[in-house]
């Protein structure tokens, strides 16, 4: 029987992928006490980066939001790998967003809403979180967005 969060994902039409493997000298997640910290995830679909390029250049705000949403889907896949059951997540504590953008781009927060809005859609009030969003000159593989997360679990 599907749990509450799995049911909510299904309602939203989301199927979590296999969690992406780490590509360098780090681990995909770390548990410390009741906190789960998930390393930054890029917008991978079937092992390929779904959105490359820079915001404020060839990538629109809407494409950036979709990329941020994909990143959070990959973050949730790591959560499932770590915890086994997404119903164990009591709260989304923090999301961090990295937006590849040109120097004149200023809508970083709007792009990151693609991830934040999904967190609230999936977890309800427990999905409301603290957040940092920064612009960067580049990301691994020319990804447009990267998202990391911190979760409290039971």
UniProtKB/TrEMBL annotation:
Pfam family, one: YjgF_endoribonc
Parts of the chain that traverse the membrane: none
InterPro entries: Endoribo_LPSP/chorism_mut-like, RutC-like_sf
Organism of this sequence: Roseomonas acroporae
Protein name: RidA family protein
All copies of domain Endoribonuclease L-PSP/chorismate mutase-like, residue ranges: 6-142
Gene3D superfamilies found in the cross-reference section: RutC-like
């Amino acid at each position: 029987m599907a749990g509450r969060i799995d049911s909510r994902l299904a309602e939203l039409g989301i199927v979590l992928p296999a969690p992406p493997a780490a590509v360098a000298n780090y681990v995909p997640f770390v548990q410390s006490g009741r906190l789960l910290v998930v390393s930054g995830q890029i917008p991978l679909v079937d092992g390929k980066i779904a959105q490359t390029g820079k915001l404020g250049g060839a990538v629109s705000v809407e494409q950036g939001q979709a990329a941020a949403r994909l990143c959070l889907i990959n973050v949730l896949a790591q959560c499932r790998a770590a915890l086994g059951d997404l119903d164990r997540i009591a709260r989304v504590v923090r999301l961090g967003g990295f937006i590849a953008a040109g120097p004149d781009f200023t809508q970083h927060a709007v792009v990151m809403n693609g991830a934040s809005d999904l967190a609230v859609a999936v977890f309800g009030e427990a999905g409301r979180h603290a957040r940092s969003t920064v612009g960067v000159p580049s990301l691994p593989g020319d990804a447009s967005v990267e998202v990391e997360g911190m979760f409290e679990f039971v």
